């Protein structure tokens, strides 16, 4: 094979591979990978700042969440010209991301099948024309505070703060049984140890739980911890996710993307303003979910 033929062959193979990736993206219903995260180069095992220019033209982007088809992104901006936290949505249409618009929807999360939007203690259902009005899943969430995550089978994991907890908080879960959620069950000490327990993320199959908490073996402020579920349904002792993830700053609000590829979390700190009040300034980071697999027991 001469050099010219080799170049032609390599070019053909490259174009074929590119075409296969485009076809795969179309079959999955997701935007192409190069568009999926606003053109940002994905991270490896070292967390990277996630601050795409399209949602953060002035550096005031805080974070957000994708719908399961990756075609809608709900996000916030704060500080600077945004005296109050402001909520936005941006949509992927006609092969590109459009212009953002303000929205009344705040901090939504989405079911794996894309049919439900969880918003605070309530939820919306996907309809033919958009999203339904807010609905209540029941009284079992009346004491919920600082986060909730729902598995594929409808089990809620959420934190509860009561006066008797003295600010520690505690993690609970509620399974969906015969169409109704059971009374909340407080989780064991493997999970409920430390202060300021908050922001759970449950894997869709409930094989692991990630949350933020202040513990004595941490790095100073809130850190991300992970616990893996055993076959008998019990939870293994929580593991600090390590110095690559956790720093002397506050790490919080973990979430794994619907495609299972990346772990997102917030890293930030409390700053004192001129008037003496404190203001939390955090940025969103992302890292390959191999960091989770590296901690999973054999």
Descriptive overview:
There is one protein chain. By secondary structure, this protein is mainly beta. The protein contains 3 helices and 23 strands. Strands 2, 3, 4, 5 and 6 form a 5-stranded antiparallel beta sheet that branches. It has a 4-stranded antiparallel beta sheet with strand order 1-23-22-21. Strands 7-8-9-10 form a 4-stranded antiparallel beta sheet, with no helix packed on it. A hairpin with an 8-residue loop joins strand 18 and strand 19. The chain starts with a helix and ends in a 5-residue tail after the last helix. About 7% of the residues have low confidence.
Determine the number of helices (DSSP H or I, runs of at least 4 residues). Answer: 3
* N→C terminal distance: 48 Å
Strand content: 35-45%
Q: Output the helix-strand order.
A: HHEEEEEEEEEEEEEEEEEEEEEEEH
Which structural class is indicated by helix and strand composition?
A: mainly beta
Low-confidence stretches: 6-27
Report the count of strand segments.
Answer: 23
Fraction of residues in helices? 10-25%
**Mean pLDDT, rounded to whole units?**
89
3D shape: globular
Q: How would a crystallographer describe the biggest sheet?
A: 5 strands, antiparallel
Q: Specify the oligomeric state.
A: single chain
Rg (C-alpha, Å): 21 Å
């Amino acid at each position: 094979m001469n050099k010219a033929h080799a170049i032609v062959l390599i070019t053909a193979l490259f174009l074929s591979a590119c075409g296969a990736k485009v076809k795969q993206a179309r079959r999955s219903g997701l935007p192409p990978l190069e568009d999926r995260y606003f053109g940002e180069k994905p991270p490896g095992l070292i967390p990277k700042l996630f601050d795409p220019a399209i949602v953060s033209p002035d550096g005031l982007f805080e974070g957000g969440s994708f719908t399961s088809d990756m075609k809608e992104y709900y996000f916030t901006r704060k500080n600077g010209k945004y005296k109050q936290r402001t909520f936005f949505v941006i949509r992927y249409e006609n092969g590109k991301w459009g212009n953002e618009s303000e929205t009344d929807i705040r901090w939504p999360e989405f079911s794996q099948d894309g049919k439900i939007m969880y918003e605070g203690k309530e939820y919306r259902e996907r309809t033919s024309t958009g999203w339904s009005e807010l609905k209540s899943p029941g009284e079992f969430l009346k004491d919920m505070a600082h986060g909730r995550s729902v598995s594929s089978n409808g089990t809620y994991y959420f934190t509860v703060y009561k006066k008797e907890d003295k600010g520690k908080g505690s993690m609970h879960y509620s399974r969906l049984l015969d169409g109704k959620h059971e009374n909340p069950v407080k989780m064991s000490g493997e999970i409920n140890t430390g202060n300021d327990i908050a922001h759970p993320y449950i894997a869709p199959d409930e094989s692991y739980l990630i949350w933020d908490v202040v513990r004595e073996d941490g790095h100073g402020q809130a850190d991300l911890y992970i616990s893996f579920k055993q076959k008998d349904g019990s939870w293994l002792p929580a593991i600090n996710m390590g110095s690559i993830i956790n720093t002397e700053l506050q790490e919080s609000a973990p979430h794994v993307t619907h495609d299972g590829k990346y772990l997102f979390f917030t890293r930030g700190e409390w700053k004192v303003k001129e008037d003496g009040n404190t203001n939390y300034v955090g940025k969103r980071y992302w890292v390959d979910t191999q960091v989770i697999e590296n901690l999973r027991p054999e």
